[in-house]
Amino acid sequence: MAVKFYRPENQVPLEMHKVRVVQKLTLLPVEERLRAIQEAGNNTFLLQNKDIYMDMITDSGVNGMSDKQVAAMQVADDSYAGSETWNRAKAAIDEVFGVTNVLPAHQGRAAENILAEAFVKPGMVTLMNFHFTTTKAHITRLGGEVVELVDKKGLIPQSDDPFKGDFDLEALRKAIDDYTPEKVAFVRVESGTNLIGGQPVSLENMMAVCDICHEKGVVSVLDASLLQDNVYFMKMREPRCKYMETKEIYRLLASRFDIIYFSARKLGFSRGGFILSSDKKWTDMMMEFVPLFEGFLTYGGMEVRSIEAAAQGLLESLDMEYINQGPEFIAYLAKELDDYGVPVIKPAGGLGVHLNCSEFVPEMPHNQYPAAAVGAAVYIAGGIRGMERGTVSEQREPDGSERYAELELQRLAVPRRVFTLSQIKYCADRVKWVWDNRKLIGGLQWTQEPKVLRFFFGRMKEIGYWQEELAKKFRQDFGDSL
Ligand code: F0G
Fold this sequence. Notes:
The chain is built from 19 helices and 14 strands. Helix content is about 40%, strand content about 10%. By secondary structure, it is α/β, with parallel strands linked by helices. The mean pLDDT is about 95. It starts with about 30 loop residues before the first helix and ends with a helix. Helix 7 links the parallel strand 5 and strand 6. A 7-stranded mixed sheet has the order 2-8-7-6-5-3-4, with helices on both faces. Strands 9-12-11 form a 3-stranded antiparallel sheet. The site of ligand F0G has 15 residues, from helix 4.
């Protein structure tokens, strides 16, 4: 239940937690921010945290821990095999999902690797509402193909549709028939569809996907990394979920999907990853890859303290007073920007706020990487680090041609339970300044372009001297302010 303020104009999202451990931040002068982004090859992944004021690159592995999580870490049982920590993690997963077939992995993409190793053979397809970078890389590495079947409403940047991550169910049926069920390695639902703006999938749509998979004899997989935000949106936006307990939703999903995997860097406010199977036969199929790639079956490459924190964090993912904080701060920031005219993905989703860079710098062609350029500008303006989620985050086609992203987004992630509202307001203020000065923003070009996952370590430089101009304008507008 949202807390109402006496004066409606004072209404803001209210945290139901307080901060008891803090970390000092620095905000560099704009000239040093300019130097830092250029030294980082205009790639925010290559910035150093000491040069960052608000780190909004991700919500992964950087969420605020609760007192109970920190306490749980103290009693971690560090034994190679059969640790009590693992038993406690399994008990927490059973409590939340009602599932006992569980495998560990060191993080989400490691779970994806195991899934791909077990199910994907050359020439097979995987059908999903939308790809995620690491998911796709593992599937294509093994000769599989990714086919995206998100409902077309998902790619409309601004709408009021509550569930833009939904599958196009007709297209799913048709794709399974056309490829034939034997060629479909699995169907994957990404709940809280990352690359299109953290957009949720409705419970109804997920159930329908499971029904179709069941009917056609195809394995259904849920990527639950962003599920806690998605559950929040189900409760808020889907009438049938309003009076369901959060646990009922988690458990209903687990009873219908064959396999659920997630990054505990997101779901669980910790680090690590898990793969849950409704039937032991799937666990058995994947099990052999765990000791091979990850570690023994009772830790899977995770550090025991992280497993303890994840177990407690998963229980906290049932609590609406915890899981509302991310989406409500995101909604606040998105509204601030939208009211000012800054193009953001609407409705606000989970994970973070997504600037729609095709509208931010409409004249800039895809091959000058508008989303990365806006990201560099936001860092110069505010020491705020976002993440490019546009063409740079795509892979080139096998023939070497550029694959232009459907949406050119700059993502400003809002890690859960981390920022105060004043920091969110600061972020809004600096992005508004960038918006007002958008004419100054120019393009970028590659100086070093890796072949795989280039967005992680590729380097670019500005075309011309627009970044120097932007820093100069900042000085004019902000005087001697940091
Ligand atoms: N699936 C989804 C939907 C994700 O968002 C991520 C990670 C993964 C899988 C992989 O998990 O990082 O633990 O290996 N997303 C992070 C992000 C990296 O910043 O969006 P991981």
